[in-house]
Please model this.
Amino acid sequence: MKFPALHISAAIILGLSAGTSAAETRTIPVGVSVDHASLQRHGDYMNVDLSLDLSKLRVESNRAVLLTPSIINGSDTLKLPAVGIYGRVRYYQYQRNNPGMISGEDETVIRASELPDSLHYSQIIPYADWMNGSSVYLDRSDFGCCRKLLAEAPFEGPYGYFGYFTPKWVYVRPQGNGEKHRELSGSAFIDFPVDQTVIYPEYRRNTTELAKIQATIDSVRGDGDVTITRVWLKGFASPESPYSHNRDLAIGRTAALKDYIQKLYRFDSGIIATDFEPEDWAGLKKAVDGSNLPNRTEILALIDSDMEPDAKEARIKKFYPEDYRFMLQTYYPALRHTDYRIEYNIRTYSDVNEIRHIMKEQPQKLSLNEFYLLAQDCQPGSEEFNDVFETAVRMYPSDPAANLNAAVCALERGDLDHAARFLDKAGTSEEAEYIRGVREALKGNYSAARAYFEKSSSIPEAADAIRQLDKLNAR
Model:
């Protein structure tokens, strides 16, 4: 019996660069030429096609010739169903005594008297990862009576080539960043009676505004892993009244807030630092710039001028009285505020189980190096592994190392678009250039990929990537 060739009408490449590779016609010392060979991946299967020139093959009546293709990649080998050509005597003998022929029921059987000059051989086999980079080889075995092996020719090839780019992933370890210094900041709008510098906690909205500062301090002060290193306060006044008077108010009111906080928390000497801005012209400019005041442009010009503060305010009040009254009622109250910043350090973690717990509860407490230590304890490519690097880049969105590692995670799961966004902030290190090359290679842009790999030539993985591109381009 003779098995028909198998065909697939539509190829699904699954986003991988795979295709046909024609082999140069080679005559091996078995009387058979391989005119064409191709290996193509179709989803979970591999399609193997060979064009065999059998015009010079001669098979004696009492002989049988077995041609066996194999898929080979290094030490991995898969033998494919063979083609058996039988002389007259051997054909009838095998038919009578062993219908399975020499190699089994999958064998394609041809009588020597019906031997065509060319044969199209095609097989569909399950695809395995090791087949990436494989080729087809062909061997011949001659048999006589009773399956006796009379002669054997070793594997000849390679014929064809199947391959798509398979990157080696490179993650980078962040540089040790020493102390983990953090800060929290905000603004409080504390009301003082006219011309006074004494804080009355119950006065107007002071209860709420003082609570904002206390809540910020308390959010870190009760954490045993945190040490507060500085509480910074800066008081601002609005531009009305003489500048010198506003300066005294800003100084006195900031000092009053410092005393209030010190009585609450009893910080060590030097922890609380103060500064002041007699008049918040920057805040006034921002408010006017975003307004629809009739004389907005003229007022902005005065604010930006080199005039003394008192002269500026007097001119605005004189020439634009309606605008001034609106500003005094609407904008000036917000200019009387205190900016604050709580600076603190977080202790270093070295136990990966502790780091794993903290990442789930308070990832903002971890350094990039601690994220990396945790990743080393995870299975590469696992959900937890990817989550570590994705959390790290959320905590450090501008850090090149965090973005580079996040880009690698995105590429591993096939998300080339997200990888591009991370790579935009991954810097210009050789590792970053290599991963940019990987992304281009996965897109099939081999020329662009090579340019990136050449920029990262000191990385061993880049040399391997270039070798892969050479094979792919040679198909």
Summary: Confidence is low (pLDDT under 50) at residues 1-29. Residues 243-265 form the longest helix (23 residues). The chain has three domains: 26-162, 180-344, 348-473. The radius of gyration is 39 Å.
